Please model this.
Amino acid sequence: MTEKYDAIVIGGGHNGLTCAAYLAKAGKKVLVLERRHLVGGATVTEEVIPGFKFTVFSYVVSLLRPEVIRDLQLSKHGLTVLPLESTITPLPDGDYILRDSDHWATIRNLKRFSARDAEAYDEYSHTMYFMAKAVKPILGLVPPDPTSLNPFELMPLARLGRHFLGLDEEHLYTFVKLMTMSSADFLDEWFECDPLKATMSASGIIGTFLGPRSPGTAYVLLHHYMGEIDGVFRAWGFQKGGTGGIAEALAGSARSFGAEIRLNAGVETVITKNGRAVGVALVDGEEIRADVVVSSLDPRRTFLQLVDREELPSELVSDIEKFNIQGSSAKVNLALDRLPEFTALQTPRGTDSPLRLKAALKGAISISPSLDHIERAYDQAKYGQFSSRPYIDVIFPSMIDPDMAPPGKHVMSCFVQYAPYNLADGNWDDARREALGDAVVDTLAEFAPGIKDLIIGRQVMTPKDIEDVTGLSMGNIFQGELSLSQLFFLRPAAGWARFTTPIRSYYQCGSGTHPGGGITGAPGRLAALEILKS
Ligand SMILES: Cc1cc2nc3c(=O)[nH]c(=O)nc-3n(C[C@H](O)[C@H](O)[C@H](O)COP(=O)(O)OP(=O)(O)OC[C@H]3O[C@@H](n4cnc5c(N)ncnc54)[C@H](O)[C@@H]3O)c2cc1C
Model:
C-alpha cells in the first residue's frame, strides 16, 4: 500500500511543476507524476547529438509570469534568462531589416525602406505597449462565469468591463480591432513596408492554424506582446542551458518546498469514487491515492482519456471533442560544424556597422520576406500539405550560451510553420519527416547558401512527433488554438474555465486552461490558488 498524498499532479511540464510548487509551498503533500525520463514537457533541453544541446521544442522565453519567478524563487533554483536583443529579416535581394536594442539605428534602418514606417514605428510600439498593459490583468484573473447569478463571481467581470470602458476612445477602438482583425490588416493600418509587416505578423500566427490574413490573429500578436523579462516589457530571452533550465528551476523549487517528483511514471487513469477523484492508476498498474488530482495535460487527455466520459455531462464531452487542437508547427534543430553565412549579413547597409550586423546572429532571424511568403505557406497547410517554403524563426542558442555546443560548433533552432497534423495524402512517416526537414533546409539555403555543407546532424519534429514525445494532442503547441472562441471563460469550455471539472477533487492546470499556452506558469499558478481556496 503506497502512502496517500494531499495532491497528485499529472504531468511534469512547466505548468504541472508550477502548480505542484505552489501547493507544496502552502504545506501540502504533493506528488508529481511525469511519463518521461525528464521533467519539462515542451520545455526541455536534450543532448540528442553528443555535445550538441537542443532546445527540442520551446526555445525562447518572455511570458513567464514575474509573480511565479518571485513566489517560487526561481532565480535561486537556476533561472537565468539571457537577453535576445534583435530580430533580423534577411531579404532575397541581399538586403535586410534589422531591429535591435539600438533604437535610433533601428529607426534609421526602417527609414531606408519607408520614412512613413520609421515615423509610425514608435507610435505603434507605444500603442501595443499600452494595449498589452491594459489586457495584461486578465492573465492573473480566474475567468468569471458570465452566466453566474452569484454577484461575487461577477464582480471581476464588472471590474474588467470598467477597466476597458476606462480606456480613451482611441485605445478602445484599437482594443476592438485587436480582438477582431487579422494581424496583416491590423499592421496595414500602420505600415507599408511588406517584409516589416510580414515579420511583425509572424507573432500573430505562431502556434495557430491561421494565416496572417485570417481574422483573429491580431489577438495572438497581442498575446506575444505581453511578456517581460526583469521588468523590461516585451523583451524575449534565452534561458541559460535552454528552456529545460526553466523546468529544472521549477522542479528544484517544488522539491525545496517538499514536493516529490516521480519520473517514468505515466498515468493511465484517474480513479474516481461516487463522482470524486480519489487517486490515479499508473500505466504499470500501481495505484496511488490522493485527496486532490490535478491534470496538466491538454483538455482532450484530461477529459476524454484520463476519465470515463460517462462521468461527464454530454455537453462538456461534445465541447471538448470540438475543441480546436490541430497542430500547425514543427521544429528542426541542426548541429552545425560552424556558423552559416547569411548573404544579407555580409554587407552592412546605410549607417550600420559590420559589428552591429554580426551581433544579429545572437538574436532572432526571421525567414519572413513577405506577407505572401507566410500566407502561401499557410495555403498549403490549409489543404493538408506542409509548407514547401515555410516561415521559419531561427535562433542560434550557442551564440547566446556557448555551452550549448562544442567549441567552434553551433546549434541552430528553427521553429517552422506550417506543418499540419493531418496530411491530405497519408500519415507522417520517416519519408515525410525527412521531406519536411529538406524543405526547411532548402528554404534556409536561399538565404544562407552554404548551410547544407555545415550540417553535422539534424532533428526534425513533426506535429506527430511533438504529440508522441510530449503528449500534446495533435502536436498543438499551446494545448489548443489561441482563438477568441477558446480563450478566457471559454477555455477549455464554457462553464469549466475555473480549473475545476465536473468530477469533484479533479482539477485542470495545463496550457489548455486560461490564459493559454507559452511558457507562462500562469495556468499552473491560478489552478493552485483555486485548489487552495477550496
Ligand atoms: C515546438 C514548440 C515550440 C514552442 N516554442 C515556444 C517558445 O519558444 N516560447 C514559449 O513561451 N512557448 C513555446 N512553446 C509553447 C510552450 O512550450 C507550451 O505551451 C508549454 O510548454 C506547455 O506547458 P504545459 O506544462 O502546459 O504542458 P506540457 O509541456 O505539454 O506538459 C505536460 C506534461 O505531461 C506529461 N504527460 C503526458 N501524458 C502523461 C501521462 N499520462 N502521465 C504522466 N505524465 C504525462 C508530458 O510528458 C509533459 O511533461 C512551444 C511549444 C512547442 C511544442
User: Anything to note?
Assistant: The domain at 5-41+61-79+241-323+480-533 is CATH 3.50.50.60 (FAD/NAD(P)-binding domain). The pocket of flavin-adenine dinucleotide is lined by residues 10-16, 33-36, 41-43, 57-61, 63, 266-267, 296-297, 329, 331, 415, 466, 470-472, 477-479, 510-511, 517-519 (CB under 6 Å).
